[in-house]
Design goal:
It is a single chain. By secondary structure, the chain is mainly beta. It contains three helices and 19 strands. The strands form four sheets. Strands 1-19-2-8-16-12-10-11 form an eight-stranded mixed beta sheet. The protein has a five-stranded antiparallel beta sheet with strand order 3-4-5-18-9, with no helix packed on it. The longest helix has 14 residues, at about 1-15. It starts with a helix and ends in a 27-residue tail after the last helix.
Length: about 350
């Protein structure tokens, strides 16, 4: 299984640091790296450009060009630092935050923890880029941006989108239960929030579409310029043929967040009716509204080299990296004056969605 092989190789790499990059099977690339938090606040330059504050809270990682608005240009020329371990990645990635609602009606933000083998990162997101081989995908262009998911969705669509958006309920400490590829575990992965306490925390996975129309860098809803393959959404580390309307195959991008919910497992603090107590910062307590935003900002052709270089893990020959000790120095000052930590009487922005 590709996921198992990947984890085994990453473990080996951490046990004995490599001078040369870790290679995947064949000439495919499966790149996995961490990006620490750059800021947490109510801004959304994609859906609500120029609006300060935007309707709901986000956790943002990547370059320090993040602001209420980001010009549709080469973002790598706007940012001066990044929280990502690939130091040429000045992109921004963001998702909603997670909150716990106690029985007394108050909310507290659930902290994020470093993902497996990415110790040293501060909260943040694990980013994956996948390519089936050299010259098979076209890297995103300067100015490109996209959104996946719908912050207002509260119910299942058709047969569901679990392969694209899911929550994994870890069964114990140290990521116990991480035995399947993202969103592929028939028991521990669900499209909605887990219904009971997760002894090792909860992991979010968000997959982006893998086909592009080859012309537009964005679209009015930030989704129509990209599409899923002809056969439907691809599962992790797989890809399909693109439709004629969106013929250009782009890297498979996936975001992964580990929420430390272990401090909220006391059932005495859960709702009296036994329902699960977690809410996205949009006010969604189903999980169906999980979504992710992306503004491309890789420098020059660094991402294309990653996708063509049979790269594996968080290193690749010829692509610059940095330690988290350096990445964690990068930040964006808060511009929204509000309390988002501690016990709150309501979600920031009242969790009103969009």
């Amino acid at each position: 299984m590709l996921r198992t092989a990947f984890l085994s190789l990453i473990a080996l790499a951490n046990a004995a640091p490599q001078v040369t990059p870790i290679k995947g099977p064949g000439d495919n690339s499966l790149v996995r790296f961490g990006c620490s938090q750059v800021v947490i606040e109510r801004l959304d330059p994609l859906v609500n450009p120029g609006v300060n504050p935007s309707p709901h809270l986000h956790q943002i990682v990547g370059g320090n060009a993040f602001n209420a608005s980001i010009a549709s240009t080469d973002v790598s020329g706007l940012a001066t630092c990044t929280t990502c371990s690939f130091s040429d990645d000045f992109s921004n990635y963001w998702t909603a935050n997670l909150y716990f609602k106690a029985r007394n009606g108050t909310y507290k933000r659930v902290p994020q923890i470093p993902n497996r083998f990415l110790e040293g990162s501060q909260g943040g997101v694990t980013v994956y880029y996948v390519s089936p081989g050299k010259n098979t995908v076209t890297a995103f262009k300067p100015g490109f941006r996209m959104l996946v998911g719908d912050s207002m969705r509260r119910e299942k669509l058709g047969s569901g989108l679990k392969s694209q958006s899911c929550f994994r309920c870890f069964t114990g400490p140290d990521f116990k239960g991480d035995n399947y590829s993202p969103c592929a575990d028939p028991v521990l992965d669900t499209e909605t929030f887990p219904t009971g306490p997760c002894l090792g925390g909860i992991r979010s996975n968000i997959h982006f579409p893998t086909c592009w129309d080859g012309q537009r860098l964005d679209s009015p809803n930030h989704q129509d310029h990209v599409a899923y393959p002809i056969g439907g959404p691809s599962s992790f580390a797989t890809t399909g043929d693109c439709p004629s309307t969106h013929p250009i195959k782009i890297p498979q991008l996936m975001l992964e967040i580990v929420w430390d919910t272990t401090g909220f497992n006391d059932l005495g603090e859960w709702p009296e009716d036994g329902s699960q107590p977690f809410f996205l910062s949009t006010g969604d307590n189903t999980g169906y509204g999980q979504h992710g935003d992306y503004v491309f900002g890789w420098k020059d052709d660094a991402l294309q080299r990653l996708m063509d270089g049979a790269c594996f893990g968080n290193t690749c020959e010829g692509v610059k990296t940095q330690d988290f000790s350096e990445a964690n120095k990068c930040s964006v000052p808060n511009t929204v004056d509000e309390v988002i930590e501690g016990w709150l009487g309501q979600l920031p922005g009242d969790g009103s969605g969009a």
